[in-house]
Predict the 3D structure of the following.
Amino acid sequence: MTAVTLKEINLDRFGHLARRATNDVGPVSILNRDGDVIWSADASAEELLRSILADTDPSVVLLTESTQRSVGSGKLMFSSPVLCEEPEPVGWIILLVDSESDVGDARAVLADVAACMAREVTLNGELDNLASELGERYEELNLIYSLESQGLAVERDPTGAQILLENIAEHLGVDVAALVLSERPTPLFGLNLTRSIPNLDLVLTELRGDLFRFVSTSRSSLILNELEDPRRRYLLINMDFRCLACPVMGGNRVDGMLVLLRHGSRNEFSNGDLKLGKVIANQTAIMMRNRAMLEKLRKFGQQMAGALIEAVEAKDPYTRGHSERVQAISLKIGSAAGLDGDSMEAVAWGSLLHDVGKVGVPDAILCKAGRLTDDEYTMIKIHPERSYEILMHIEDLSPEAREGARYHQENFDGSGYPHGLKGNEIPPTARLISVADTYDAITSSRPYRAGLSHEAAMTEIQRVAGAQLDPHYVTLLERLCEEDHRWLLRITNAHDTSDE
Ligand SMILES: [Fe+2]
């Protein structure tokens, strides 16, 4: 609560009101809580009052009730205190008159004006408090919004969680904001230290120990402000931090705990801090649930993709594992190309699903050991477009990923299929996948021939660079194999003839 003062109200308005209400029988002045004149009808009235006050004992004039008293220069002084919620007046309104016959009901009028002033001062104070509370709520909302927008990447990105916890520590004015999770042996934490904590590891271990067990078992929040709190005999022993701990609920289970620590020299935790701590803990719980759900969905998506590939590869046992191998090689080339996260994701999905269209090619053609007729080859050439059509049903798949599958049989010189695109007309994801696909096709065994060696595959790939394949991605694959190509042998069925 801010201390209220008369300065925040319109003194002119009340001074003139008092003058009019007392029929201008004498000069009106207003004093502050220290007895200083802060408003007067005119300079001479102010000077007169100052001289009277200088000669008068304030303790007999400036009282908590309305008074009338004879003062110097034969004057009569009426004084009404401005009383707000505090026991002491925040000021006085003073009227000086020459004789009692002038007074009329001035005393009552003066008291009414003082009451109006008190009301306005109180209202102003309430407004100030409301504004500062609004400011605090805004800060809290901002914090909660930042929690939501940054996301609590607790499992996969502890750095993200640390930044977020530092943010919380700063907003709440605490030294340590820690998130204890039942799944993790050590808490995630952010610091906003007013002075160092030399045994921080020990403190964090203690949070993960009995404090967490206590909050998990009681399933309720806990504030330890006082050093003399009897619970300190078994919680945060020998640690002089003020502590606020709130459980993070996962349905009926306690999945974690938000802990805020302040050095003993800082403010105690208030009910407002407790409320905010609970909100943040709840928000964290919601984010953790969302994250778990997303993870589940991600796994479901991967398993569905796996099932789709299984359906294709079951048609032709010789191609078993081809999609995963092409994906692994493509990702290596993609990372050597310095692709960003979205493009890497497109490469991952496009390469894994590039052949799903083969599901529509008759088994007799797909597995034919002998030479294909022109018509049979045409049926094979349908598969990239079919892959694209199938992948159109997966809304979340990026266009880049779909294009990777659709154009992976296009040749750099325009001689490929299904659209005969050339050079940069072919989307980069497709040009990249094409290199990986070619390597795996050469090194995999077919019904009519055994898979070739790594060296043979690289020689062939270099030969067709610029014709069938984009030379840029061929160069990247060469570079990836320059010092050590064993990673490629581990991924694929290729054998190595360099030692033979
Ligand atoms: Fe393929």
The pocket of fe (ii) ion is lined by residues 322, 326, 354-355, 437 (CB under 6 Å). The chain has a mean pLDDT of 87. Residues 6-126 form a domain with the Beta-Lactamase fold (CATH 3.30.450.40). The chain is about 50% helix and 15% strand.
